[in-house]
C-alpha cells in the first residue's frame, strides 16, 4: 500500500465533539464485507465479551446510537448502530471472519493504532503520576505538621495516625496490609507503586485530613486518629457513589522512582537552547 494512501478504516473514521475517534458499526460492517448486518452484530457481541474479559467497561468503548442510511432517491432513514472506539474496533476485527482478506488488513491497522494509543496513554499516565506524587509529598508534609500540632509527636504515633487514614480509605487495611495485598516487595513503598487514580484519592485524603485538623482545632492523638479515619472513609464513600474502583482493587504500577529517574535523564540529555 502506498505510504500516503488512506486505508478503508481511516476513511470511515469519525471524530466526536471531544476530539475522540470512533467508527460506526454500520460503516464498519460494509468495509468488512458483511452483506447481512445481523451477522456482524454477532461479531460485536463477541467483542463485548472480550472487552469485559480484558477488564474494560463495554460502555466506554461501544455505545448504541442512531445512524442515517440512504434509501434511494436522496432519501435517508435512521437505523440503530453501535459507535465503536478504536479499542472496540480492534476487538471486533479480532473476532471477524478471518477468511475475508480485508480482515487481515484491519487486524494490522488496528493493532498498530491501538499500540500507538497505548503508548500515548502510558506517557500521559506517567506524567499524571509524577505530578500527583510530587504534590502528595508536599501535602503529606503539611499533614504531618497539622498532626504534630494536634499532639501526634513521636514517629510511632504518626505511623499509627497515617494507618487510620489508610484504614478509612482502604476498608480497614493498614499500610502493611495494603503492601501485602498489592504483592509488593519488602523494599517497595506503597505510594511509589500507585497509579494516578489511587494517588489522587490519597492526595484528597491528605488535604482534607489536614484541613479538618486545623479547621476543627482537633487536639489529642486519639481524636486526630479518628478524624483521619473519618476523612479516609468519606473519600472511599465518594469513590463508591461515583462508581469508581476501590483503591485496594487498583493494580500496582511500576515504581515511580524509575519514572523520576527517566525524567531526570531526559532533562539532562536535552540540549540547552539559548
What is this structure's SSE topology?
Elements: H1 8-11, E1 14-15, E2 21-24, H2 25-31, H3 37-53, E3 62-72, E4 75-84, H4 86-95, H5 101-150, H6 155-169, H7 175-181, H8 196-215, H9 221-241, H10 256-269
Helix pairs in contact: 3-4, 4-5, 5-8, 6-9, 8-9
Descriptive overview:
This protein has a 4-stranded antiparallel β-sheet. It is 60% helix and 10% strand. It folds into 2 domains: 8-97; 123-262, no CATH class. Helix 4 (86-95) packs across helix 5, helix 6 (155-169) runs parallel beside helix 9 (221-241) and helix 8 (196-215) crosses helix 9. The protein is an alpha+beta fold and 274 residues long. It has helices at residues 8-11, 25-31, 37-53, 86-95, 101-150, 155-169, 175-181, 196-215, 221-241, 256-269, and strands spanning 14-15, 21-24, 62-72, 75-84.
Concise summary:
The protein is α+β, with helices and mostly antiparallel strands. Helices cover 60% and strands 10% of the residues. The longest helix has 50 residues, at 101-150.
What's the domain count?
2
Query: What helical percentage do the residues reach?
Result: 55-70%
**Number of E strands:** 4
Number of helices: 10
Task: Quote the distance from N terminus to C terminus.
Answer: 43 Å
Principal-axis shape: elongated
Rg from alpha-carbon coordinates: 25 Å
Secondary structural class = alpha+beta
Q: In this structure, how is the largest beta sheet organized?
A: 4 strands, antiparallel
Portion in strands? 5-15%
Low-confidence blocks of residues: none
Taken in chain order, the helices and strands follow as: HEEHHEEHHHHHHH
Mean pLDDT, to the nearest integer, reads: 89
Taking strands numbered 1, 2, ... along the chain, how are they ordered across the largest sheet?
A: 1-2-4-3
Amino acid at each position: 500500500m502506498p505510504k500516503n494512501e488512506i486505508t478503508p478504516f481511516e476513511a470511515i473514521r469519525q471524530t466526536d465533539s471531544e476530539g475522540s475517534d470512533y467508527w460506526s458499526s454500520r460503516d464498519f460492517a460494509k468495509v468488512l464485507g458483511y452483506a447481512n448486518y445481523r451477522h456482524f452484530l454477532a461479531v460485536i457481541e463477541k467483542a463485548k465479551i472480550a472487552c469485559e474479559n480484558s477488564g474494560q467497561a463495554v460502555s466506554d468503548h461501544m455505545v448504541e446510537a442512531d445512524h442515517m442510511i440512504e434509501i434511494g432517491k436522496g432519501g435517508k432513514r435512521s437505523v440503530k448502530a453501535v459507535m465503536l472506539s478504536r479499542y472496540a474496533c480492534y476487538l471486533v476485527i479480532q473476532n471477524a471472519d478471518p477468511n475475508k482478506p480485508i480482515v487481515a488488513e484491519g487486524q494490522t491497522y488496528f493493532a498498530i493504532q491501538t499500540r500507538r494509543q497505548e503508548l500515548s496513554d502510558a506517557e500521559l499516565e506517567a506524567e499524571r503520576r509524577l505530578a500527583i506524587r510530587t504534590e502528595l509529598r508536599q501535602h503529606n508534609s503539611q499533614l504531618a505538621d497539622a498532626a504534630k500540632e494536634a499532639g501526634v509527636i513521636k514517629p510511632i504515633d504518626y505511623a499509627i495516625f497515617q494507618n487510620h487514614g489508610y484504614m478509612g480509605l482502604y476498608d480497614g487495611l493498614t499500610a502493611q496490609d495494603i503492601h501485602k495485598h498489592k504483592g509488593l516487595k519488602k523494599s517497595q513503598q506503597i505510594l511509589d507503586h500507585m497509579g494516578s487514580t489511587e494517588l489522587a484519592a490519597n492526595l484528597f485524603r491528605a488535604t482534607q485530613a489536614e484541613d479538618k485538623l486545623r479547621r476543627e482545632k482537633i487536639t489529642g492523638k486519639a481524636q486526630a486518629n479518628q478524624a483521619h479515619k473519618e476523612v479516609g472513609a468519606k473519600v472511599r464513600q465518594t469513590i463508591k457513589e461515583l462508581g469508581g474502583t476501590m483503591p485496594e482493587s487498583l493494580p500496582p504500577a511500576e515504581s515511580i522512582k524509575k519514572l523520576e529517574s527517566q525524567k531526570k535523564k531526559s532533562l539532562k540529555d536535552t540540549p540547552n537552547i539559548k
